[in-house]
Amino acid sequence: MITDTHAHLNAPQFDEDRQEVIERARANGISRIINVGFNRETIPSSIALAEQYDFIYSTVGWNPTDAKDMTPEDLEWIESLCGHEKVVAIGEIGLDYYWDTSPKDVQDRVFRQQIQLARKVGLPIVIHNRDAHHDVVQTLREEKAAEVGGVMHCYSGSWETAKMCLDMNFYISFGGPVTFKNAKQPKEVLEKVPLDRLLIETDAPYLAPHPYRGKRNESSYVRLVAETAAEIKRISLEELCEITTANAGRLFGLS
């Protein structure tokens, strides 16, 4: 049993073979998938996917790269979806200073509004952080995100930053990049993250693990992330999968 805690199986990259991709995941022992809706287009299709498959769950949120497009009505809409039985978190939300497609002040406002919403409805948050480590941590502190906790998705920062996030009730999730031969820092951070706060993911169709680097990612490949994580943690693959699946269940409120 393995949980892929972050995927985008509703993405157009899967339009021609989505059913086969999902069946491959099941055949490879993937017992649960958290699929992420992050804007006006992807939220409805993510929820629809979760409604179609009993082992797929959805998040709802507004990605920082699209922050400039979010209206007050969109925020109300996200809130209205938080009561859906298959919606387990708000996300992915955060700050992205790499793509710079939305002004930083707009990203900041949208990020804060969604943390406040998460606290209001009592759901954890899924954090997207690209080249904005300091500001993300500061905002999480200022908005009391520790009250709901969440996950630092596809973590790429330092151990020092990871410690601050752990102190705020967050889990640290690793994806395909931790399997890359030159991924020194992610491997070092994963080694230090306590087992009871560790998660694994694919971010499919993006960031495929070795040996599929550069190709389309899919949920069945989360097993490769699990194998690397087990090796780094010096435990069996079975134990690593059992622990991270239990962690995901605890975070997202799944039995």
Q: How is this structure best described in words?
A:
The chain is built from nine helices and eight strands. By secondary structure, it is of the alpha/beta class. The longest helix has 18 residues, at 104-121. The protein has helices at residues 18-27, 42-52, 72-81, 104-121, 133-142, 159-167, 184-192, 222-233, 237-252, and strands at residues 2-7, 30-37, 56-60, 87-96, 125-130, 150-152, 170-174, 198-200. The model has no long low-confidence stretch (mean pLDDT 97). The protein has one domain (2-252): TIM Barrel.
The structural domain count equals 1
Average pLDDT number: 97
Percent helix range: 40-55%
* CATH 4th-level superfamily: Metal-dependent hydrolases
Per CATH, the class reads Alpha Beta
CATH architecture annotation: Alpha-Beta Barrel
Query: Runs with pLDDT <50, length 5+?
Result: none
Keywords: Hydrolase, Metal-binding
InterPro entries: DNase_TatD-rel_CS, Metal_Hydrolase, TatD-like, TatD/YcfH-like
Binding site for a divalent metal cation 2: 128, 153
Protein name: Hydrolase TatD
